[in-house]
Amino acid sequence: MTQETSPAHPRPAPPAVAQASGTRPAVSVSAEPMSGAQSVVRSLEEAGAEVVFGIPGGTILPAYDPLMDSTRLRHILVRHEQGGGHAASGYAHATGRVGVTMATSGPGATNLVTPLADANMDSIPLVSITGQVGASLIGTDAFQEADIVGITLPVTKHSFLVTDPAEIPNAIASAFHIASTGRPGPVLVDIAKSAMQLPTTFTWPQEITLPGYHPVTKPHAKQIREAARLLATAKRPVLYVGGGIIRAGASETLRKLVDASGAAVVTTLMARGALPDSHPQHLGMPGMHGTVAAVASLQKADLVFSLGARFDDRVTGKLSSFAQNATIIHADIDPAEIGKNRAVDVPIVGDLKEIIADLLPELAREHEAHGKPDLGAWWHQIDAWRETYSLGYSQPDDGLLAPQHIIQRLGELSGPESIFVAGVGQHQMWASQFIRYERPNSWINSGGLGTMGYAVPAAMGAKVGAPDRTVWAIDGDGCFQMTNQELATCTLNDIPIKVAIINNSSLGMVRQWQSLFYENRYSNTDLHTGHGTRRVPDFVKLAAAYGCAGLRVEREDEIDATIKRALEIDDQPVVIDFTVSRDAMVWPMVAAGVSNDDIQYARGISPAWDRED
Q: What is the CA radius of gyration of the chain?
């Protein structure tokens, strides 16, 4: 039998990338005798999987034997299941295909909880195959038994428990379909060891039937017309672009809308690269550490058109004070997101590529009938904000390196065709601010969950998916120590990622909050990794132990030469330990829970925009 949670998941059923998924069109495959374990491997092949990141163990071991014979699947042996999950996420993010990870039962499966929750928050198409104890042992507290379906219920889009080998092909086919359609997200397929050991016949389903799961892709024409009317008549319009645009593969279509509308554009942390930073209407990132121009434009807009964003608290600040005078249009593939946080005037449910495609001719008709709106005064105000409050940074007083300068040079020397993957914290924010992103899928990070340790394994997965691109993991010394063991995986599997450790010898973002809100009481944030004579660990020696090139930069005149040297090394992973000031802070900043009107441009400095007009 197959037990499953309802496709109408109680959490928002994480935007649509059906064209970019790893799922093949349904085909008929004649019944073939084989074991359940062979059926697992064959199903992954038929679903279009190319790479599996995993670790074998007792209950998943039956599947690893036929996996050895597969000529269509590449298995990469990771060093920790969490690393495998994040690697699958990085692969999916870089390619648009479904990422696949595999683990055994009990602790193997529970180690996937964080990557599943991370993928759920950021709408990453992921399929996790886990082994489970034999069907007769389920519920007996058997060795390495854990109810992983129950544990992950709140953090997956859908879950299956398979105890009948005949159900394996349908469960895996359905998992790939669910993960990659509608709002993408993670799907768990938990398979009892007994089901893998029993004989069965393999038949790939000709069609997938999932009662209750019918993602809406075509938007309602009346709502499209109303959105076009409002966009054509607004005096201070802003397009608020979220990661859904990238998941939908709608970046090119978005640019047409931007050019046609003349509206200002902000791209969230998950949408960096959806519109080139070089586009003159692009104001950068909004929110807690967004640009002043992006934050101010949302606060002063008379129309906010949200495209694949969810009005996250890190963008809105104090919700009741967010864009108070704006009419709100909210377009999203997930109906559960619309109106969840902010009341909406025009809701549009559908695939963003189809929404914008339908919107463009309606907007052109509005312009033809009534003329284009005069946005001169709006852009005059925006340009004043951009000029007065441009992104910048001060040189540290302690004589150590400015992390912002290092990250900016990484971007400039590597170029826009590179992929940049960040951990979580100050380095993540600086990477989102000081690298210019000119194309989608060039910026990968843990946005919604904020997972430390994400960068190295996700960069590994991204490099596997995009081997011809330079892939940088921009990490903090705290994040790096959580998952750096995956450098061994990179070395042994010829995955030459490059790691830039922004080493301030601290848990940097926590220390920043301690500076601002806890009177400089630095409780348990000193990591002892780079300042003074004691380095624990020494990252250059650690890199060498993992078979990587290890480099260190302590002087400004070494920065460019070392980055260029790293770019020239393509036969092994590279780790650069950049020793930076621990007193550097991320600005601008909106403190948690306060209004975006109270944004600080720098410490003690607030922009003086007119809040009455």
A: 25
Q: Considering the domain 221-388 in this protein, what is its CATH number?
A: 3.40.50.1220
> What is the overall mean pLDDT for the chain?
94
* 145 catalytically annotated: no
> Cβ distance 202 to 124 under 8 Å?
no
* Residue 458 host element (H or E): helix 455-465
143 is catalytic: yes
- Looking at residue 323, the DSSP 8-state letter turns out to be T
Q: What is the DSSP letter of 25?
A: P
211 to 11, 161, 276: CA distances (angstroms): 18, 17, 40
Domain boundaries, the chain: 2-202, 221-388, 403-579
Q: Pairing mode, if any, of strands 32-35 and 199-202?
A: antiparallel
Q: Does domain 403-579 have CATH number 3.40.50.970?
A: yes
Taking only the tens place, the pLDDT of each residue in 45-94 is 999 999 999 999 999 999 999 999 999 999 999 999 999 999 999 999 99
Q: Are 477 and 530 in contact (CB under 8 A)?
A: yes
| Of 81, 145, 354, 362, catalytic | 81
First to last CA, the chain: 64
Question: Residue 419's beta-bridge partner residues?
Answer: 471
Verify whether residue 337 is a known catalytic residue. Answer: no
Q: If DSSP codes are grouped into helix, strand and coil, which group holds residue 2?
A: strand
Q: How is domain 2-202 classified at the architecture level of CATH?
A: 3-Layer(aba) Sandwich (3.40)
User: What is the predicted pLDDT for the residue at 534?
Assistant: 82
Q: One of 3, 32, 143, 368 is an active-site residue; which one?
A: 143
Q: What is the largest CA-CA distance in the chain?
A: 74
- The structure tokens listed for 276 are 């080139």
pLDDT digits (tens, 9 = 90+) for 430-471: 999 999 999 999 999 999 999 999 999 999 999 999 999 999
* Residue 214 backbone phi and psi in degrees, to 5: -140, 75
Pairing label, strands 498-503, 158-162: unpaired
Closest to 501 (Cα-Cα) out of 553, 557, 572: 553
Contact 435, 411 (CB under 8 A): yes
Residue burial 345-356, b: 16+ Cβ < 10 Å; e: rest: ebbbbbbbbbbb
Euclidean distance between CA atoms 316 and 596, whole angstroms: 7
Which residues have C-beta within 8 Å of that of residue 507, sequence separation ≥ 6?
Answer: 425, 476, 478, 525, 527
Check 144, 197, 485, 572 and give the catalytic one: 144
Catalytic residue among 102, 132, 193, 539: 193
Q: How many CA atoms lie within 13 A of 573 on its CB side?
A: 32
- Does the annotation mark 311 as catalytic? no
DSSP characters over 472-498: EEEEEHHHHHHHTTHHHHHHHTT---E
Q: Which of 121, 196, 509, 589 is catalytic?
A: 509
Catalytic residue flag (residue 572):
no
Instruction: Let me know: does 201 contact 46? Beta carbons within 8 Å.
Output: no
Integer Cα distance of 283 and 239 in angstroms = 10
Give the pairing of strands 158-162 and 126-132. unpaired
Give dist(CA 508, CA 584) in Å, integer. 9
CA distances 274 to 247, 282, 371, Å, are: 10, 10, 28
- Do 2-202 and 221-388 fold alike per CATH? yes
Contacts of 610 (CB under 8 A, 6+ apart): none
Q: What is the DSSP letter of 275?
A: S
* Residue 396: exposure state from Cβ atoms within 10 A (0-12, 13-18, ≥19): middle
